[in-house]
């Protein structure tokens, strides 16, 4: 069965099929869309927001099955089987109909609508969720969770679960008839956070299946095992009162529907970077500890069974069949991908995928996708497809790529990968080398200093310029200074036409003393004027040198501002509420970029003028 991926760039969205060689599916045509693109969990349909409105298309054939002229929609979500579409747009004052709508895709009708002023952060979307079989729909409101018939969501809920201060709710994966529901209340002042498991429909006072109270938990990530029998709770708070971590405190707990609650003991102090269940549901990998972090495998009893050792990793990704996994270092790390075979625990390859924003295994577990997305990064946008053994199979640049994802398909439609798949594509060490960072070179010196090459001796630098030995009257210190200035003429014997050979201050002074001493010996006696021979005056430094240095300092300061703005935009995209001064910084980005461009032009002009001096 063929697999495919959807990529959206500046020119529109394209469906590509057939790794390792990708071909465009001509039946899928989308106008240029924004970042609002989403597949249903089963991959049967996908939704896009275009300038003309919202559409839902069939993944096979590209037929439009739903269309509404609502271009003002700012968030979308498809139910797991693509039966319903949830949309949110800004609330209009005085409007009778709610701005949060649930659409029946086949009929195009609104089955339920609610008024919701704020979209909320990333963890609170979608505002209406379903169980994986679409039997139950639920919505979190102030101090309550409302449960609906998943096939007929309406304004009136079938069940209500009231919990003061509830912040998150999640339902187990899989089909019924019984469903477990997890609820979380964040810590507040002196009151601890509270985590509870419930049996759906049995929401009476004290009827929970399991409960745990703990501190240092302002927010949590709820990670159900694929079977739904266990729940991992990854806690986080922005402030670490112990002072051990700048990034706050983290913790990891496990909770079972049998009421068992246990703490996951980790062998190295430091933050928990990532946790992922194996698709088989029998174990999970946790990446934890101070740099370099440790990646380790744990069983369902939270006992460590294998350590992958320390490395530049903060992300783990399992292949859908559970045979392969990738340990990666994204964000503030180098971007290495390490491919592992879970069967043998052997490392298959380590490759470079720096600047990766999106990543995902294909449904057949044979290919791994990485993408560099816009606007998170504004250069080198595009995606790569790797084999399960770490070989680079396909690389494509896409202008302003904002979305790339495999079309979801059930893994049971594909045979599990084996040794033949590992041998099919062998990684080449030369195909994607691990790049090493280059030393920073100021803009005004990049032409000349780059020609000399970094990390070489002064003698080699002189040879490269055809100098041979250091010129007469010039020390190695002078030669090094000339290299620092970046001018190739400063390193040559002759220099520019009409230029006189410079003489260092010490050399001139010593020569003057020798000549004065010689005259004294020839008969000048005590009356000889020692100062009669003045050392030649050195030419003043080039007037543009100091100015260039000032400009370069300003450039570095502005580049620092842009990095801060990029981090703030990332926090905002993740749903974090920013202060007014932080929002002002984001709004001023274009002004800052224009200032940077102006400074770079001034530096180039100074450099050209310095060449003619």
UniProtKB/TrEMBL annotation:
Region entry Disordered, spans = 1-24, 487-549
Q: Name one GO molecular function term.
A: tRNA binding
Which keywords describe this protein according to UniProt?
Answer: Initiation factor, Protein biosynthesis, Repeat, Translation regulation, WD repeat
At the top level, the lineage of the source is: Eukaryota
Q: Which Pfam families match?
A: eIF2A
A cellular component term from Gene Ontology for this protein is: cytosolic small ribosomal subunit
One GO BP annotation of this record: regulation of translation
Query: Where does this protein have compositionally biased stretches of type Basic residues?
Result: 508-520
* Domain Translation initiation factor beta propellor-like: from-to ranges: 212-402
InterPro entries for this protein:
TIF2A (IPR011387), TIF_beta_prop-like (IPR013979), WD40/YVTN_repeat-like_dom_sf (IPR015943), WD40_repeat_dom_sf (IPR036322)
Q: Which family does it belong to?
A: Belongs to the WD repeat EIF2A family.
Q: What does this protein do?
A: Functions in the early steps of protein synthesis of a small number of specific mRNAs. Acts by directing the binding of methionyl-tRNAi to 40S ribosomal subunits. In contrast to the eIF-2 complex, it binds methionyl-tRNAi to 40S subunits in a codon-dependent manner, whereas the eIF-2 complex binds methionyl-tRNAi to 40S subunits in a GTP-dependent manner.
Protein name, entry field: Eukaryotic translation initiation factor 2A
């Amino acid at each position: 069965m063929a697999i495919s991926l959807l990529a959206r760039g500046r020119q529109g969205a394209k469906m590509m099929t057939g790794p390792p060689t990708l071909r465009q599916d001509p039946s899928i045509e989308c106008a240029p869309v924004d970042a609002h693109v989403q597949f249903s969990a089963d991959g049967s349909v996908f939704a896009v927001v275009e300038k003309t409105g919202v559409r839902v298309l069939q993944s096979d054939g590209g037929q439009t099955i739903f269309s509404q002229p609502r271009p003002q929609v700012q968030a979308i979500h498809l139910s797991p089987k693509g039966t319903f579409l949830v949309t949110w747009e800004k609330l209009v004052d005085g409007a009778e109909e709610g701005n949060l709508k649930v659409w029946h895709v086949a009929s195009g009708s609104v089955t339920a609508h609610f008024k919701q002023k704020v979209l909320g952060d990333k963890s609170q979307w979608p505002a209406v969720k379903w169980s994986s079989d679409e039997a139950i729909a639920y919505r979190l409101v102030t101090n309550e969770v409302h449960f609906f018939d998943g096939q007929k969501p309406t304004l009136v809920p079938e069940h209500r679960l009231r919990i003061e201060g509830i912040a998150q709710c999640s339902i187990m994966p899989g089909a019924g008839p019984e469903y477990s529901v997890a609820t979380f209340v964040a810590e507040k002042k002196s009151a601890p956070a509270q985590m509870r498991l419930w049996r759906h429909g049995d929401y009476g006072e004290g009827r929970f299946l399991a409960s745990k109270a703990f501190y240092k938990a302002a927010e949590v990530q709820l990670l159900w095992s694929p079977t739904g029998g266990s729940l991992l709770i990854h806690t986080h708070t922005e402030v670490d009162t112990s002072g051990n971590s700048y990034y706050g405190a983290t913790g990891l707990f496990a909770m079972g529907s049998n009421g068992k609650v246990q703490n996951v003991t980790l062998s190295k102090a430091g933050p928990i970077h990532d946790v992922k269940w194996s698709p088989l549901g029998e174990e999970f990998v946790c990446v934890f500890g101070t740099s370099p972090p440790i990646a380790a495998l744990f069983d369902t009893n939270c006992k460590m069974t294998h350590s992958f050792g320390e490395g530049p990793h903060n992300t783990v990704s399992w292949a859908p069949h559970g045979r392969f996994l990738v340990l990666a270092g994204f964000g503030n790390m180098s971007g290495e991908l390490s491919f592992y075979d879970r069967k043998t625990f052997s490392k298959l390859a380590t490759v470079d995928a720096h600047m990766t924003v999106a990543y995902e295994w294909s449904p057949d577990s044979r290919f791994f996708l990485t993408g560099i997305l816009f606007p998170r990064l504004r250069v080198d946008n595009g995606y790569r497809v790797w084999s399960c053994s770490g070989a680079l199979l396909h690389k494509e640049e896409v202008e302003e790529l904002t979305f790339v994802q495999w079309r979801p398909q059930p893994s049971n439609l594909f045979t599990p990968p084996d040794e033949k798949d590992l041998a099919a594509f062998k990684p080449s060490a030369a195909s994607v080398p691990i790049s090493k960072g280059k030393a920073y070179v100021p803009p005004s010196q990049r032409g000349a200093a780059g020609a000399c090459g970094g990390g070489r001796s002064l003698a080699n630098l002189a040879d490269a310029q055809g100098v041979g030995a250091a010129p007469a009257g010039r020390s190695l210190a002078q030669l090094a200074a000339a290299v620092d200035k970046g001018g190739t003429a400063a390193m040559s014997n002759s220099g520019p036409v009409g230029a006189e050979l410079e003489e260092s201050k010490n050399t001139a002074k010593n020569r003057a003393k020798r000549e004065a001493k010689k005259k004294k010996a020839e008969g000048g006696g005590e009356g000889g004027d020692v100062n009669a021979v003045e050392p030649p005056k050195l030419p003043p430094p080039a007037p543009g040198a100091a100015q260039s240095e000032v400009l370069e300092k300003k450039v570095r300061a502005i580049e620092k501002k842009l990095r801060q703005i990029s981090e703030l935009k990332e926090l905002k995209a993740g749903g974090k509420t920013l202060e007014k001064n932080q929002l002002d910084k984001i709004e001023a980005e274009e002004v800052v970029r224009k200032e940077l461009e102006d400074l770079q032009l001034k530096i180039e002009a100074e450099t050209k003028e310095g060449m003619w001096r």
